[in-house]
Specification:
Blueprint: H1 2-11, E1 15-19, H2 24-35, E2 41-44, H3 51-62, E3 69-72, E4 75-78, H4 80-88, H5 92-97, E5 116-120, E6 126-130, H6 140-154
Parallel strand pairs: 1-2, 2-5
Antiparallel strand pairs: 1-3, 3-4, 5-6
Length: 156
């Protein structure tokens, strides 16, 4: 059940941060995404009734037990170090610019009518925060490269 929930969240949102509200690394990633104007959903596992089970399911799925556990375009990116390294290497913004919430992840963010960052704060509560959008081009090849590197690291 927890695995199904995690996969449904990832498949229905362009950018997902599985997080814990008190984790400084999670705060760093969420702050970076907000600064870049990314539209994302943060699932605060410490506020979810099944958060421990979801975190275990994520560990089984990705090989990563720690948070933040970040997905972009349905692809597992990794944690804080992976996200900040992508940003330092100027690869994060291009990844974020091609995404729109939904299962296809193929429309540019510039076509999104609303630039809302949705942060889940428990089983049925969420907070929405306005944020600017930075959308320009498609970079699915980069997503696949990151996914391949992630798979090699986790042994999948």
């Amino acid at each position: 059940m927890a695995m199904k929930k995690a996969k449904e969240i990832v498949s229905s949102n362009a950018v997902v941060v599985f997080s814990k509200s008190y984790c400084p690394y999670c705060v760093k990633v969420k702050d970076l995404l907000k600064k870049l104007g990314a539209k994302f959903i943060a699932v605060e596992l410490d506020k979810e009734s099944d958060g421990t089970q979801v975190q275990s399911a994520l560990a089984e799925w990705t090989g990563q037990r720690t948070v933040p556990n970040v997905f972009i375009g349905g692809k597992h990116i990794g944690g804080c170090d992976s996200v900040t390294n992508l940003h330092k290497n100027r690869k994060l913004v291009p990844l974020l610019t091609v995404l729109e919430t939904g299962s296809t992840h193929s429309k540019p963010v510039s076509r999104i009518r609303s630039n809302i960052i949705k942060i889940r704060q428990g089983d049925n509560r969420s907070t929405e925060v306005e944020g600017p959008s930075r959308a320009r081009k498609t970079v699915h090849a980069e997503l696949n490269t990151i996914k391949a590197k992630s798979d090699r690291r986790s042994g999948h």
